[in-house]
Amino acid sequence: MDGNDGGLTALSPAVRKFLSQPKQVLINGKWQSAQSGKTFEVFNPANGEIIGHAAACEKDDVDLAVRAARKAFDEGPWRRMTASERGRIVWKIGDLILKYAEDLAQLESLDNGKPIAVARAADVLLAADLFHYMAGWATKIEGSTIPLSVPYTPGAEYHAYTRKEPIGVVGQIIPWNFPLLMAAWKLGPVLTTGCTVVLKLAEETPMSGLRLAEICQEAGVPDGVLNVLTGFGEPCGAPLAAHPLVDKIAFTGSTEVGKLIVKAASHDLKKLSLELGGKSPNIILDDADLDIAIPGAASAIFFNQGQCCAAGSRLFVQEKIYDKVMDGIAKAARGIKVGPGLDPSTQMGPLVSQIQFDRVSGFLKSGADDGAKALTGGKRIGDRGYFLEPTVLVDTTEKMSVYQDEIFGPVVTATPFKELDDDLIRRANDTVFGLASGIYSTNASKIHRLASRLRAGTVWVNCYNIFDAALPFGGYKQSGWGREMGQEVLKNYLETKSVCISL
Ligand code: NAI
Ligand code: MG
What we know:
Blueprint (H helix, E strand, L loop, with lengths): L12 H8 L4 E3 L2 E3 L6 E5 L6 E6 L3 H16 L8 H17 L1 H12 L3 H22 L7 E2 L11 E9 L2 E5 L5 H14 L3 E5 L6 H13 L6 E4 L3 H10 L5 E5 L2 H12 L4 E5 L5 E4 L5 H13 L11 E5 H17 L18 H17 L2 E4 L14 E4 L6 H4 L6 E7 L4 H8 L8 E3 L3 H10 L6 E2 L11 E2 L5 E2 L1 E2 L9 E9 L1
Parallel strand pairs: 7-8, 7-10, 8-9, 10-11, 12-13, 12-17, 13-16, 15-16, 17-18
Antiparallel strand pairs: 1-2, 3-4, 5-6, 6-22, 11-20, 14-15, 19-21
Helix pairs in contact: 2-8, 3-5, 3-7, 4-5, 5-6, 8-9, 10-11
């Protein structure tokens, strides 16, 4: 597509050149096509046009990539490098992301559909910051010395200590909602801890991850340490999850596929971390500052077209302020400028793909069939691209699929509640998920009381969707295993070795 049309951000010469070259995958430091020669089409979700082709990797490619990662872990220079040298490479990746920030933002907006302003301000900056944050940990991964008492060897003396060692070869599988940022969340800690990796990008959005792989090479990541594949879930993701030479799988995506990963990894008991779906409650108490709560609750669901695992998709509003809040959120929803991601004035872009558009439309239909009412929205916009109106559903009941299932689109259900009591807490927690939650209130004691009782990995108070490289993120219940980011994520990629010496 010619980015000069219709007031859209013109694609930079570097992005045009990147898109015009055949997209290959990175295995053992070499860019190559899939063994089968097969490719698949990559689409611009704003108009359904093809923007490129990516390599359709399968089992053979996975095997090559895993063997390269295994060799790089067992024999390569990576393990012999000092922590400081490794940290400097990780830091440099962050620097280069900033250097190429505009190109990455354009690529992300084109491929995923998200507003260019969001790609610039959130995805790219957070990705760079993640590498910069992680780089500092490389030199601070420490074990401890441990005093032993061993009661059955009286009089003996021991010197014991622990070492934190990289877990080995890691397979990583990521989704399409924040393609660059999800790659950063995964690669930052894996490189920092000294593991090697095979990363499979999402088939909907392979572009920015491939560009990031080039950036990692430029930053000095040795051959074989980072291998990046493109391909579909079953032919490419599944063999990675089952590969016997992989020590650990880190997955972000649907809870359904998370369960398949658990099965695939069970036959040789690979270590696993999972970042899965959500259906997060967002609670507005009647003492809330509504100038903060109303736009906050709207952006909690409509940010990134609602394609956020942490989206505030179940809104609970205290009775006294319910009508006013609903009015405000409906107005906010109607005021959102929906358009192509590359239009700088766009606030909400298209959904990522025809499949996701059909899936979210299916939820809207099931909600309507079940008796939910759209206070605003509920319809497609235009007939090209995958645009949906920001939608607020009311009159929902706890049994409805729109209330229980992750819709992953710009659709929120809203229900009133009487008091901050056990029933509200039961309702807020009444889902198989436990990823995030929100509270809007000005009463500190109510905030803390509620925050401690929400069964969720994150509680945002008077804000929503605030992410930081230093702040752990992950889920209770079926929202996942382990945490991303912060010091916590290092645990996903480290083994603890106890060394016990008789003196
Ligand atoms: P998905 O879970 O199928 O895809 C995520 C990643 O897993 C992709 O890279 C995909 O190729 C891979 N994958 C798919 N099947 C696999 C398998 N059998 N073995 C190994 N890897 C496999 O998610 P999808 O289909 O893109 O979206 C479906 C729903 O999942 C969404 O509507 C949303 O509800 C949820 N989702 C949640 C995300 C999150 O961040 N928690 C991200 C993306 C989707
Ligand atoms: Mg899928």
